[in-house]
Sequence to fold (304 residues):
Amino acid sequence: MLVAVAVFPGTNCEIDTKYAFEKLGQEVVLVFHKEEKLPLGTDLVVLPGGFSYGDYLRSAAIAKFSPIMKAVIEFANQGGKVLGICNGFQMLVEARLLPGAMKRNENVHFISQFHHLKVIANDNTFLQKCSMNELLNVPIAHGEGSFYIDDAGLKELYANHQVLLTYTDDKGNIQNPNGSVDSIAGICNKAKNVFGLMPHPERAIEKILGSDDGVKMLQGFLN
Amino acid sequence: MKVIVNIQLKNGVLDPQGKAVHHALASLKFNEVGDVRIGKQIILDIAESDKESAQKRVQIMCEELLANTIIENYTIEFPAC
Fold:
């Protein structure tokens, strides 16, 4: 599988993401934001974490107009699989490839810690290797990760099984770190080819570093 | 001409920054403050003399980039100068 990881000025998780997918035996290419095309034969595009364009104006507000994003949007609209992690998730909502919007964390702090997530839907590519209601321990690191969507949009998300993950404690009870609507940590689009989450599965791939729960998440994309 | 764009979180969308500042004001004994909302002001200098067409252009800028209309409202002002 060929994984294209987009790199913007201020992106800082591209190497971790590359390392994670290479550890899973996949070929990974870093693609600079000025490129207008994705590498031929790209199977998965990952928009990694970081602070693209310094988070100026709003997180990911400027990144969505980068040349490479035109190609990513086209790729997604043709059914190509796209995964947005953290700042990448923010790009996907800013580009309207995913519904909703991202706000400052409710407590106004940047939060960097391990957090438990509960699997809410696994009838999709991304979380197919996970069980329903399974708890995953994955790091979060963000200042603007409070997911917002209006009531009608939220209903639609649930109706189509687009709510993928929620923040919980280690027993599976809701524990909302950032004020996200319904404690939502990750969603997908209706067609289930575009996925976004604030937590960092690529930072949870080795037990020695605290958790390898991210492995089975990323493995969902492997054929 | 100068154009001022004010961007605010929509009513009903929680403003955590406003809340934190409200709390700080209350701890300084400014008890008369009932609510605080924080927004952004963007001042544009535009090569355009017609106010109406400037208004139209800036509106497109707001919709495409300056505001996220899912959570934010914007107003466009022309300061007297």
Notes: The two ends of chain B are 9 Å apart (CA to CA). The mean pLDDT of chain B is 95.
